[in-house]
Amino acid sequence: MITIGIIGGAGFTAGELIRILLHHKKVNIDFIYSTSNAGNKVSAVHQDLIGSTELVFTNTINPKVDVLFLCLGHGNSKNFLAQNTSFNNVIIDLSNDFRLQDNAKFQGKEFVYGLPELQKEKIQHAQYIANPGCFATALQLAILPLASERLLENDVHVNAVTGATGAGVSLSKTTHFTWRDNNFSYYKPFTHQHLGEINQTVQQLQTGFDSEINFLPNRGNFSRGIYATTYTHFKGSLEEAKALYHEYYKDAAFTFVTDQELHVKQVVNTNKCLLHLHKHNDKLLITSCIDNLIKGASGQAVQNMNLLYGFDEKEGLELKGSCF
């Protein structure tokens, strides 16, 4: 049994992380840190946990826990570690602070990029994990098989929609119900911050890739999930593409290639990524769907912890979604 500490316990990703870990047979949650909620029951903030836990938020930290999950806003993980230097345990960071190679080393700690379908063995031997971003997860899983065979020969075009939880728990004018409901919009066209880690992975697999990844992120009027359509030039047949994808993901615990056309409800509340392929003339269309809070955040973080400790990769993550 390993002990867990969670920093930044009041946000959406922390709520999902707590829910998963409460059902994980190999862990015990030692503390959940939140200065703004210290002394309050966790279930008072994450109300789906009523009846599941009596844990209380705290403003004190136990540096002796085995695993520390950082569920902080972007930029805050680095600040937290700079102020709390006594942690020599496993750290899994859910922010974007350490995902890029230029930022992966910090205070003697070297963070490994935690995309299991890319580098499972490195994760298994790591101590510090930089969990991928939600859009980055969905988009990379769409193109990893092509990049691994150096088959990205032209620009990659991506149009992806995320639910409101992708913006975090803090309110803004584009997350209020009155703005989001019955509405649709794009944001950060061609400049989204997750492009950095996507391009880094492509270069890792296909050195010398010099085409563009044109990414248009959109806000959807639903709570959770990512639906991404990616297309690029592909000389082979649809059957050849399917064979390539099935081979690449044959040992993946949560990524599945299907002939069924996809929709978001197939993956919500699960740690799955579903992929669908379609060929039109010389273009290959890859549709990918994930839950942004689970496979795109907390579920993948637990998957990385399982790999690192040698647990069954699916431990705690046999989550059940619903199409209704």
TrEMBL record:
Enzyme Commission code: 1.2.1.38
Family: Belongs to the NAGSA dehydrogenase family. Type 1 subfamily.
Record's subcellular location: Cytoplasm
Transmembrane segments: none
Catalytic residue positions: 134
Protein name: N-acetyl-gamma-glutamyl-phosphate reductase
Keywords of this entry: Amino-acid biosynthesis, Arginine biosynthesis, Cytoplasm, NADP, Oxidoreductase
Catalytic activity as recorded in UniProt: N-acetyl-L-glutamate 5-semialdehyde + phosphate + NADP(+) = N-acetyl-L-glutamyl 5-phosphate + NADPH + H(+)
Annotated source species: Pseudotenacibaculum haliotis
Pathway as given in its UniProt record: Amino-acid biosynthesis; L-arginine biosynthesis; N(2)-acetyl-L-ornithine from L-glutamate: step 3/4
